[in-house]
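Schema walk-through. Below, the input block comes first and the output block second. Nothing else is stored per chain. Lengths vary across the set, and this one has 381 residues.
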Amino acid sequence: MTAQMSASEISLFRDNVKRFIAENIQPDFMQWEKSEIFPRQLWNQFGEAGLLCVDLPEEFGGCAAPFRCASVVAEELSYAGFAGVATSYAVHAYIVANYVMNSGTAAQKNKYLAKMVSGECVGAIAMTEPGTGSDLQGIVTTAKADGDDYIINGSKTFITNGQHCDVVIVAAKTNEVGGAKGLSLFLVDSDATGFQRGTNLDKIGLHCADTSELFFDNVRVSKTDMLGPLDKGFLVLMNELQRERLSLAIGSVCATEGVLNETIQYVKDRKAFGKPISALQNTRFKIAEMATEVRIHRAFINECMDNFESGKLDIEAVSMAKYSCSEMQGRVVDYCLQLHGGYGYMTEYPVARAFVDARVQRIYGGTSEIMLELISRSVLA
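--- output ---
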């Protein structure tokens, strides 16, 4: 693969991803959901199949693939209804790896990236704290200078890949000035003395995506482990949010496409009053409405992907995408469940899982309310 890929090349890559999902995820996924974690080995299988961090340069084991190609893996996972795996994958491959690639030193890139491509090193990012959600300026975890080191103290929560991670990007206060001006990022290895994982948190959805509290008790890291400039961590975070929020918007649309197509098949097969419920006007009109919503949002994220690859995607547009796509997902999945009737409330049906998995899309990566604030600032400027 190269930075420029034809539609046929991306289609071939998509076929490989679908085959991997059918062979390695489909057979055991429901057991992983019940266990509330997928096996650590899956990361190595992703790596062996060449499906991790494919947008990284070849010198680190990647393929220098464009974003549109790299996003295919999480797209297909989301479409197939495996949102828990898709979420964990996206954090590692789309977020953490690109933080290191775009803001890391040569030594940091050499230490982590090739292992992230192979699946040997799993990444997580720790921003949210028990008392701090969307307001990152309120972070209270500290990193205090001590000679050539920093000592980190604090705790984080809701951390995706918290159980599997080998390295975690930690946001901590390095300056008492407060606000965004005193935040720095650090790469912390999971075997560091004083680092401790909490229990795997019990969520209403995304069950097999391990989500944890993380604790830092006098964790000593070298100054060379700082990711990006001192006290500029907030700017680093902001620079990466475009990719993160666009990825979330794409995942929302793909997951919705998947559950809608499953619902279309269901209403064709399910009978009521002696005929398929797809023959009922209410069903036909609701399916038409939902298909229209999905197609409109698909067009929007295609536009956003084009602009992202050309460096033209702005905060207003990506905030609109994240907000509108996730809200659309909630509406459509809710009515897809309604069309399944009582069976939609049974966990054995994919629509039930899609319903609970969809709810967090309006929360993480910036809540819908935060997106509206960002949009309004731009529109009213």
